[in-house]
Amino acid sequence: xxxxxxxxxxxxxxxxxxxxxxxxxxxxEQEDEYSLRLCKEFRxxxxxxxxxxxMDATLxxxxxxxxxxxxxxxxxxxxxxxxxxxxxxxxxxxxxxxxDVRTLLDARTSPYWENHYLFGRPSSQKExxxxxxxxxxxxxxxxxxxxxFYHKNHNPEIVDxxxxxxxxxxxxxxxxxxxxxxxxxxxxxxxxxxxxxxxYKLFCNHKKCLNCSVGFQLLKTED
Length: 223
Fold this sequence. Notes:
There is one protein chain. It contains ten helices and two strands, in the order H-H-H-H-H-E-E-H-H-H-H-H. By secondary structure, the protein is mostly helical.
């Protein structure tokens, strides 16, 4: 909070703790003035707040990711969001409409990332805003579960409102849901896709077909 208003220092925190500034990860060809300044700033903040070395950068995934989804870009957007949004947690919890939540997630990046996807590798100029699909994935998988858990423990009388948020959102698209579609399933909204993803995780992954009403019916049909 002491450094919330300084986007550069927030980035130093985030990239440093993400392990993306470590010498073992930040190769010589990726070193430039900006990354070296971030390294210096992170070392200063480490000493000031007595914080650890950060995570293992090799845990970050790059394979088959579009450049817009690289960890560097997402962290830059998160830093921007954190810097612009005082009391962001409370504002997300209090948001009464889907439009309000999406507005709170409007994120850009610092100027450096408008022509970079990785440190030290210039790219064509492009403003890195968060798309509607990316926002919706964050809302579905992070914000709505958080709102549900919080209100269930503090305001249980309004928990059902969270399901209305899910019903207003388009169904998700991924390989698991494609398999359900091959079985003839149709999805109208994100509440339904979340339900079938949960079904897959709880039963299909553990081969509990006989404990699953869908699996039981499929096996019965085959017989």
